[in-house]
Amino acid sequence: MIKLNQALCLFWTPQRGWHREMSTLYLLNGKIVHIGNGGPTRFEKEFSCKGLIVLPGLIDSQVHFREPGLTHKEDLFTGTQAALLGGITGVFEMPNTLPPTTTLNAYEEKLSFAKDRAWTNYAFFTGGAKENLDHIAKLEALPNSPGVKVFMGSSFGTLLLDQDQDLVTLLKNTQHRVTFHCEDENILQHNKSQLPPNPHVSLHPQWRSVNSALSATLKIAKIAKSLNRQIHILHVTSQDEAEALKEFKPWVTFEVLPQHLTLHAPDCYQRLGTLAQQNPPIRELNHQKALWDAVTQGLVTTLGSDHAPHTLEEKAKPYPQSPSGMPGVQTLVSIMLNHVNAHKLTLERFTELMTLGVVKAFKLKNKGLIAPNYDADLTLIDIEKEHVIKNSQMVSKSAWTPFNDMKVKGKPISTYIGGQLCMQEDEIVIDKPSGQPMWFDKS
Ligand code: DOR
Description:
9-stranded mixed beta sheet, 15 helices, 18 strands, TIM Barrel, alpha/beta, binds (4S)-2,6-dioxohexahydropyrimidine-4-carboxylic acid, Urease, subunit C, domain 1
């Protein structure tokens, strides 16, 4: 039994919504067993949370950890280590590995790689592909998977499912929420053919245009509506999509990324070159403003890092041979707490996007709340703590961050996972990885 004293907790109840309350938490056998006065009198350890705010464990619902096949960029050990140091207690990992996670075998292999090597809890998406459409129902029903993810436009890796008929079949053959990367493959190919010789990376938003993102987003939203199916759209980047999706609220939940809320074109391409190259791209300020509006108006459901590590050597290739994607799992919480301090969103809204929002979209079990019988996963933050983000702090194999040298206010200080203190003050304080697969309601 662990007792947490003086815990200023962010609770959520249906009656009161999010609210802050000073309390005492008791953790036992991986669960929150009691909250408040009159708790058990025997406990092995007691910690004070004075000066910190206790959030339900934050979940990053989009990371690429590259194992198997691309482990020179990242693996499940280093990726989850970065997550843990960043204040994350659970991750949803993406299927564009080598081989892609499109078969039961590949999925089970990934689970076996994660066993005893993950520092946070984890869950693996499977990939929707032409070859697995007829047995996709089996893959989406896996109880430790958030479901099926589809690339409608090719990005990094080989996954692609872009034909209308295949998308209809996919949604007809599934019953749980399916997750989409929305860029229109035909428009992407056409735009790429129009790039000048030796293009500068600042043309990335032209190649991967608003029109391409909007076209794919509208296509899949309309199919979902016509079949009355639920979908989730990853990394929405444009004002046009954010506005168009208002009409599809009953069928579509969507995600935004910290990099799209923090960086903008053309500045990011001038400062960072291909390090700012990401699919779908970072766009101009009017799009960023629309994404913030969508966050504060409650239209956005989740916030993920899209942690997509590539080595600096790979990123240094001439554009457009340089791969798209940037690491982010270790910086997500600090970057967003800085936005909380800048009054861009409330701490409650931020927390919701990384806890309850994820739970609701994916029917994640026993997580996302500080409540009795819930899993004892907690992220403790110091909302006042100022610090400077540095490449040298990054434990991802990629060892860089687009936010190098950024001064931020607000920091994750410690995490409890399964009732165990795992990270404290930038140190991992457990001897070995003890992350567990997460469970989803597939009834
Ligand atoms: O920029 C990106 N990189 N977008 C994606 O969709 C994939 C990711 C990666 O895996 O590198």
